[in-house]
Specification:
alpha/beta, Rossmann fold, 2 domains, six-stranded parallel sheet, five-stranded mixed sheet, 32% helix
Length: 298
């Protein structure tokens, strides 16, 4: 859909187009003697892909993107760093974003990668929670002109939230927003989550509310966008004095600036179907409820 209305959108993946879903259907690929294509087969070489994207962006007319698994972002880190340094509007599509990769095991399950990317100055990292947030994330990425954006996407299916019951996904542009409010608007607890863990937070909220614990859920897809907001907005989303529990399937470093407690990972993953991996490593509704009750002393 984007390719039809953005004629200078060009990109591809590091030999993972079928897995990352980054092929522009209906348009040819660049090949020997053919340079009118809009799909680029970069090959199994993420670092080179990053360098090529930087060069194309510097040339001028193109909006470029490249896709691979999040765990392979390490291979292209120098290119990402240079894009951020040169303030180039490159878009990275990093899929298979957590231990939910499942049977591929720890070698393909990113754990420290979100933290590593967030450490790069001028790189916006966005981990949307559902299809509507993904659409909003693309809007943010395409509008940015002064630096790169990394879109962090799941491998597994996640629910599309009913926005008639929840806040609109346009809140993503502010980095974090109140997705579900406590039933009377006065929370005893704030759950903060990103990506696929937002659905867990919403399910935990239902149980906590049933137990009389008024619970707000904040979707926080981007630290960088949130930090750019006025202090008044940030304090309205993360109310001072209210206990906060963050949930993200990755290293918890950095989360303590926003949360009092974190359900994260301090180890590598495991090879098993992803629901079992989530269960064994503690990413369950029951664990969130237990940690939440402990945090508020109830």
């Amino acid at each position: 859909a984007l390719a039809k209305v953005i004629p200078n959108l060009v990109g591809g993946s590091a030999d993972l187009m079928e897995s990352t879903q980054t092929y522009l259907h209906g348009f040819p690929a660049v090949g020997r003697g053919r340079f009118d294509g809009r799909n680029i087969h970069f090959g199994v070489r993420e670092h080179a892909m990053g360098g090529i994207l930087n060069g194309m962006s510097l040339y001028g007319p193109f909006r470029v993107y490249g896709g691979t698994f999040l765990v392979f972002s390490d291979y292209m880190r120098p290119s990402i760093r240079l894009a951020a340094m040169m303030r180039r509007p490159v878009i990275y599509v990093f899929t298979h974003d957590s231990i939910a990769v499942g049977e591929d095991g720890p070698t393909h399950q990113p754990v420290e990668h979100l933290t590593a990317l967030r450490a790069i100055p001028n790189l916006w990292v966005i981990r949307p929670a559902d299809a509507n947030e993904v659409a909003e994330a693309w809007k943010v990425a395409l509008r940015r002109r002064d630096g790169p954006v990394a879109l962090i996407l799941t491998r597994q299916k996640v629910p599309t939230f009913d926005r008639r019951e929840l806040a609109p996904a346009s809140g993503l542009a502010r980095g974090a927003y109140v997705l579900a409010e406590a039933r009377d608007g006065k929370p005893d607890l704030i759950l903060i989550a990103t990506g696929s863990e937002v659905a867990l937070a919403l399910a935990a909220r239902e149980q906590l509310e049933a137990q009389g614990i008024r619970t707000r859920v904040v979707s926080m897809p981007s630290w960088e966008l949130f930090e750019a907001q006025p202090e008044e907005y940030r304090r309205a989303v993360l109310l001072p004095g209210i206990p906060r529990l963050a949930i993200e399937a990755g290293i918890p470093w950095g989360w303590y600036r926003y949360a009092d407690a974190v359900i994260g990972l301090e180890r590598f993953g495991a090879s098993a179907p992803y629901p079992e991996v989530y269960w064994r490593l503690g990413f369950t509704v029951e664990r969130i409820v237990e940690e939440a009750r402990r945090l508020i002393g109830r």
